[in-house]
């Protein structure tokens, strides 16, 4: 049985446009599991990024509840929420953002590099092995400028994985990439999802990405209109 990581119950979100209420997410019930690459699809403006932000505890829902591994995390104080966010989620966005002055290895470790303390050797080793698993070892000690956008995006994935998130949340991670790099990044994300303790959620409006999903959830006007899961061969 796949482990449940994140549960959304009755999630709605309103934004106000010149005092007119706009309901951009409508009563979403979803559950996300370890070992699965779930795609959230839907046209522009359907609410994908809003949903991903709510899942990652970046944005509060207007209604509904969120559970991480069964624990209700809907009403936590900000500091506790921030701790949970750091501990449970990794984020990858459309455009990779690296610090140009740091090496690739330093970029992966940057969130753990508290001023005045050394990054523990075990964490450096982990960063190295993440780079190795993505075929990027040779770049550990170079600056980001020599990498292609696709390689940078895989570095961004490594950085998002360094603290072992249970859920990797990716917003249009391939939309800035050509077909070849897009396929490399998608294969990487698929590999990342093949873990009994981790799931991957990938937001996209590109149908070419769908075949990579174990599951494709489609949003339209803020509501789930399809939730399809690939049949697993017995
Ligand atoms: N901070 C905000 N304030 C007001 N309206 C917002 C805000 N964020 C999003 N919206 C509105 O909510 C709706 C859903 O936006 P969202 O960004 O979640 O869509 P999306 O599916 O990610 O679209 P895209 O594919 O273009 O990224 C849109 O109508 C958008 O204008
Ligand atoms: Mg979006």
Defining key terms:
binds adenosine-5'-triphosphate; Rossmann fold; 4-stranded antiparallel beta sheet; binds magnesium ion; 234 residues; single chain; 28% helix; 6-stranded mixed beta sheet
Describe this structure as you would to a colleague.
The chain is of the alpha/beta class and 234 residues long. The protein has a domain at 4-95 and 166-229: P-loop containing nucleotide triphosphate hydrolases (Rossmann fold, 3-Layer(aba) Sandwich). The chain has helices at residues 48-55, 78-88, 104-109, 121-133, 149-161, 179-193; strands spanning 4-17, 20-33, 37-41, 63-68, 71-72, 89-92, 167-171, 199-204, 215-220, 223-229. The strands form two sheets. The protein has a six-stranded mixed sheet, with helices on both faces. A four-stranded antiparallel sheet has the order 2-1-4-5. Strand 4 (63-68) and strand 5 form a beta hairpin. Helix 5 (149-161) packs parallel to helix 6. It binds adenosine-5'-triphosphate and magnesium ion. The site of adenosine-5'-triphosphate (ATP) has 11 residues, from helix 1.
